[in-house]
Design brief:
The chain is an alpha+beta fold. Helices cover 28% and strands 29% of the residues. It is built from 13 helices and 28 strands. Strands 1, 2, 7, 8, 14, 15, 16, 17, 18 and 21 form a ten-stranded mixed beta sheet that branches. Strand 19 and strand 20 form a beta hairpin. Helix 1 runs parallel beside helix 4 and helix 8 runs antiparallel to helix 9.
């Protein structure tokens, strides 16, 4: 989405982390050298996606410098909905449980048409998962936790650095490195990087400096986004209205966040004066009409956004790699922005590590482009469908939509057709060159090659933390060596008992199973029994050597 100019409203929050410099400018020794210093990886952007990439690199011992023209976390709640799979990724980055502890968990969604509820849905996955279906949490807390994680890694001696108020003003691309010109409060300096990861948001200056752009759709509609602080007895659920009495002919959304903050989205239409609509004297009457005249609230943050469903044609441009909103944009209904961005970096970093260590060809990074473009296209398709249902483009489309909503109140067959935002789910990389053809034909389809691993109870803990961020040979009712090393890449075995959850999620009707799991916890290959030549061939394929 495109965010408008933020208007700072009533200072009502108990904690305004976005007012405090968390990575204040400090002069770097790199600014005092005669020739530019060469760094292993430079990340542009200290938002959630840039910090996620940097933390992942640092945890694996790869030197990384994060550059940002700001020195504090984002102002306003911005992204607030975080799905189960990104929380699992954040757990490996050291922030997952902190997010859940602070966030508001939810799984119930309710859909209203006019003044009546037409149906509800439950997003809670099957039992036996460590993380909830969704949490709501303001983006400034998310970023604060990630900055704190960076500080903890620095204290442990990890090679990671954030440089605030370091604005990249020019980029030069070369066959084996990237050059950067950087402006600071004390003047400019130059830097070189073996690899550059651009995570600098929807307006990506990096993309503009390289003369690159998006392809896709801009939808003719604007939405008011307001974070309000109030004491309310609304349940912890996602409420979505079509054509409500307080916003006739449009839509609305209500979400709860921590600290008594509530997110409200109101559809405004296309031909509006954005600056006028953001003024408190125009926002407050709209909110009172929705919430009631007697409800007391304070405005924390207000903005206007326009739906965009677009992406770059390619995410990798030699030594410059794009991730998150810098690479793709979707409408916010469905919570696909930050969630998909974290899956970008989760897909990228293990591949970049293998390439940098000489254990995989540089062409392995082309699979990042294929897999995450596939993920972006899936998100764009679902987001576009949601947007078309929420904002019909013709009178006949509106009549059809309203009929679906009427039917859904009493008829279950109509409910899957209601689309108030298909909520984020992880992408399965069907068709990826890294997948080995499925040899476990009796296994569950949900765990086929390319799919993300499902969590499951394991003793006193859970499966996914035991998989970690390395190649793993997962065995169920099958024998295999405890450790293999192939072309410098190690594979550790994890042997599981066929519990009901493991059987349902990984074994199916097979008598035994052996899975090769990638470092990003996607399935690379699976077989009914251990076959060493097949495992070696699958690993070579998964690291781009075949």
């Amino acid at each position: 989405m495109i965010l408008g100019e933020e208007d700072k409203m009533n200072q009502a929050s108990d904690k305004k982390v976005f007012e405090v410099p968390l990575y204040a400018y400090q002069r770097s020794p790199d600014q005092d050298t005669a020739a530019p210093v060469r760094r292993k990886v430079v990340v542009i952007g200290a938002g959630p996606i840039g910090l996620g990439a940097a933390i992942d690199l640092a945890q694996q011992g790869i030197e990384v410098v994060v550059l940002d023209d700001n020195d504090k976390v984002s102002f306003g709640s911005r992204a607030i909905c975080f799905a189960k799979r990104p929380l699992e990724i954040l757990d490996r980055l050291g922030c997952g449980h902190e997010m859940v502890d602070k966030g508001v968990e939810w799984e119930i969604g309710k859909v209203f048409f006019d003044d009546r509820q037409v149906y509800d849905f439950n997003l809670l996955p099957e039992k036996g998962h460590e993380f909830p279906a969704f949490i709501n949490l303001q983006q400034y807390y998310f970023e604060e936790y990630m900055v704190n994680r960076v500080r903890a890694l620095q204290a442990e001696g990890a090679p990671i650095e954030i440089r605030g108020r370091n604005k990249v003003s020019a980029i030069g691309t070369h066959p084996n490195h990237v050059t950067l010109e950087i402006d600071t409060p004390e003047g400019p300096y130059n830097l070189e990087a073996d690899w550059l990861i651009a995570c600098d948001g929807a307006g990506s200056p990096t993309r503009a400096m390289l003369g690159l752009d998006f392809v896709g759709r801009v939808f003719e509609d604007n939405f008011l986004i307001a974070d309000v602080i109030m004491e309310a007895d609304f349940p912890t659920e996602r409420w979505f209205w079509f054509d409500p009495p307080f916003n006739r002919g449009q839509s609305a959304l209500l979400h709860k966040q921590p600290d008594g903050v509530w997110r409200i989205d109101l559809q405004l239409g296309w031909d509006i004066d954005k600056e006028r609509e953001k003024r408190p004297e125009n926002v407050i009457p709209r909110l009172k009409e929705m919430l009631g005249e007697d409800v007391q609230f304070d405005l924390e943050w207000v903005s206007i956004y326009t739906f965009q469903c677009r992406r770059m044609e390619q995410f990798r441009h030699n030594r410059v790699i794009f991730a998150g909103d810098a690479a793709h944009q979707v409408s916010p209904f469905g919570a696909r922005g930050a969630n998909s961005g974290l899956q970008d970096t989760d897909n990228l970093i293990w591949k970049l590590k293998l390439v940098m260590e000489g254990n995989a060809p540089e062409s392995l990074l082309d699979s990042y482009d294929y897999e995450r473009v596939h993920g972006a296209d899936e998100n764009i398709l679902n987001s576009s469908r949601s947007t078309d249902f929420i904002t019909p483009k013709s009178e006949m489309s509106r009549v059809l939509r309203d009929a679906v909503l009427d039917l859904s109140e009493h008829h279950a067959f109509a409910r899957p057709l209601v689309n108030s935002g298909r909520l984020s789910v992880p992408c399965t990389y069907d068709g990826s060159s890294l997948n080995t053809p499925d040899a476990l034909t009796a296994g569950p389809a949900r765990s086929r090659p390319g799919s993300p691993c499902a969590d499951a109870p394991l003793g006193g803990g859970y499966l996914l933390p035991k998989l970690g961020d390395r190649f793993t040979l997962l065995t169920i009712g099958a024998e295999a060596p405890e450790r293999l090393e192939i072309d410098g890449v190690a594979i550790d075995r994890l042997a599981l008992d066929p519990t009901p959850e493991i059987t349902d999620r990984y074994l199916g009707d097979a008598a035994g199973a052996v899975y090769l799991i990638r470092p990003d916890q996607h399935v690379a290959a699976r077989w009914p029994a251990y076959d060493e030549p097949a495992v070696k061939a699958a690993l070579k394929r998964a690291i781009g050597k075949e």
